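Example S7 (structure tokens).
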């Protein structure tokens, strides 16, 4: 009998455990709900927005960003919330918090593509990466990201006021990328690593043809191919250089180098240089050339 009572008590205890767990779970859920509720700003959206705007006007950009995010979090369906989202990104950008600015602006472009402030949001992303650009002798990952975002902005919103800014910045960023390739190419050239050098100069001729570095790149290709005994490519590089930049001092150097070997500039239509150059507009220092 005593054993039966003991087993009965055990059964009651075992049966009570799920109930205790349920109560505990409800308590945790209730606490979490209370935390979320207390973290939301009960002020009207317009009041929060005006407060954030005042902080931004006063130059307190990081505080403004947090306040704009407060509005978006507390009143996500309010008319002011969407504008607050992009202004939070802008405020982070002005505060120098570039990673935060990028994340906030990307969130806007994901949730509200094609809206009135979408070009502005893309402009913030591109500007943040552009500001992180390093000198040609440093890592160029931010420069590459800047070019990608700037081209996206130009493509998606060609008529926006930010498109012209993007166009100018693309030229600057690509010039930096070309300069970086040239530095590495010269490094290889000095150490007689002609194949490594050619790969770098080839990138400039193929991808950054409209930069000022393309003239030297073509001359260095002439030099590298001559060193390897690949005469037709050396002649083609010099011919393309002379045709597009006849007054360039780099062409004079390339011409003299060929002459020293009893050669002259001559374009080989099967050369990658000829094919690459013909696939893009020809440029001179004054701009595109006709014909």
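Recovered sequence:
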């Amino acid at each position: 009998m005593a054993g039966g009572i003991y087993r009965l008590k055990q059964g009651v205890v075992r049966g009570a455990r799920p109930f205790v767990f349920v109560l505990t779970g409800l308590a945790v859920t209730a606490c979490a709900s209370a935390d979320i509720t207390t973290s939301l700003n009960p002020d009207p959206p317009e009041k929060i927005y005006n407060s954030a705007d005042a902080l931004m006007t006063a130059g307190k950009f990081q505080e403004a960003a947090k306040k704009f995010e407060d509005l978006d979090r507390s009143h996500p369906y309010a008319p002011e919330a969407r504008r607050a989202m992009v202004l939070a990104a802008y405020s982070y950008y002005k505060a120098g918090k570039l990673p935060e600015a990028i994340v906030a602006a990307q969130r806007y472009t994901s949730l509200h593509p094609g809206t009135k402030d979408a070009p502005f949001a893309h402009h913030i992303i591109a500007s943040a990466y552009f500001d992180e650009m390093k000198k040609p002798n440093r890592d160029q990952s931010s420069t590459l990201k800047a070019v990608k975002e700037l081209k996206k902005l130009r493509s998606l919103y060609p008529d926006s006021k930010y498109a012209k800014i993007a166009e100018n910045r693309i030229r600057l960023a690509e010039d930096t990328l070309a300069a970086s390739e040239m530095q590495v190419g010269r490094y290889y050239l000095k150490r007689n690593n002609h194949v490594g050098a050619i790969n770098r100069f080839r990138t400039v001729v193929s991808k950054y043809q409209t930069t000022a570095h393309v003239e030297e790149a073509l001359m260095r290709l002439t030099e590298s191919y001559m060193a390897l005994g690949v005469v037709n490519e050396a002649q083609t590089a010099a011919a393309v250089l002379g045709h597009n930049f006849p007054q360039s001092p780099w062409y004079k150097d390339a011409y003299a180098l060929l002459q020293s070997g009893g050669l002259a500039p001559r374009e080989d239509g099967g050369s990658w240089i000829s094919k690459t150059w013909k696939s893009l507009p020809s440029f001179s220092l004054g701009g595109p050339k006709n014909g």
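Notes on this example. Strands lie at 283-284, 287-288.
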